[in-house]
Write a structure and sequence with these properties.
Elements (H helix, E strand, L loop, with lengths): L1 H16 L14 E11 L6 E2 L7 E6 L4 E7 L16 H9 L1 E11 L2 E9 L8 E9 L2 E5 L3 E3 L4 E11 L2
Antiparallel strand pairs: 1-2, 1-3, 1-10, 3-4, 4-5, 5-6, 6-7, 7-8, 8-10, 9-10
C-alpha cells in the first residue's frame, strides 16, 4: 500500500509539472473545432514522455456554444481490415482497431480551472455516464489540455496525458 501512495504522489507531481490546473482565461474561447497537434504522456517513474498513438496521431475536439463536446483520437498508420469491413474482420483486427482509437461525446461544463466532460456516448463503455476531467490552457490559437493520471497505452500504467490542439474554426 505504501508503494501505491508513492506512485500516486509521483504521478500527481508530474501532472502539476505538465500544467494541471492552468486555467483558460475565457471559457467561451474553448468553443470551436480543434485539430490535434500532439498527444503525449509522462511516465511517473522516469518522467520520460512518449506518444501512445505515435508521433503523428490525429484527432479533433469540438465544443459547441450550447454545452456539447465530442472528441476523436486515432493512432497513426492504422491498419485497414483484411475483410474490407469491421463486421467480417477477424477479432484480432477489431481489437487492434479499438485499441488504436478513442471517441466520446456528451455535455461539458467549465468549473474554475477545469472542464468536465459528461460522457454520454463512448467507444469505451466504462466512460458512459461518467465524467472526464480536463485542465485547459489557452495560448493564442493553441489549447493544451492535461488530464489527471489515467491508465494509458501500452501497459495501463497511470500517466498524465498532454494533448495540444490548434483551433481550426
Amino acid at each position: 500500500m505504501k508503494a501505491a501512495g508513492v506512485l500516486l504522489r509521483s504521478v500527481l507531481a508530474l501532472w502539476a509539472i505538465a500544467g494541471g490546473g492552468a486555467a483558460a482565461a475565457d471559457p467561451s474561447a474553448l468553443v470551436g473545432v480543434w485539430k490535434l497537434v500532439e498527444y503525449s504522456t509522462a511516465d511517473p517513474d522516469s518522467g520520460e514522455r512518449f506518444h501512445p498513438f505515435g508521433r503523428n496521431a490525429s484527432g479533433y475536439l469540438m465544443y459547441t456554444p450550447g454545452g456539447r463536446m465530442s472528441a476523436l483520437l486515432q493512432a497513426e498508420n492504422r491498419k485497414r481490415f483484411s475483410a474490407g469491413n469491421r463486421i467480417s474482420a477477424p477479432a484480432e483486427e477489431r481489437a487492434e482497431a479499438f485499441s488504436t482509437s478513442t471517441a466520446y461525446m456528451g455535455r461539458y461544463s467549465y468549473e474554475g480551472e477545469r472542464v468536465i466532460h459528461h460522457v454520454e456516448l463512448s467507444t469505451n463503455p466504462d466512460w458512459v455516464g461518467a465524467d472526464q476531467l480536463r485542465y485547459p490552457k489557452l495560448e493564442g490559437k493553441r489549447l493544451t489540455i492535461t488530464t489527471p493520471p489515467l491508465p494509458t497505452r501500452p501497459d495501463g500504467k497511470l500517466r498524465v496525458s498532454t494533448l495540444v490542439w490548434e483551433k481550426v474554426e
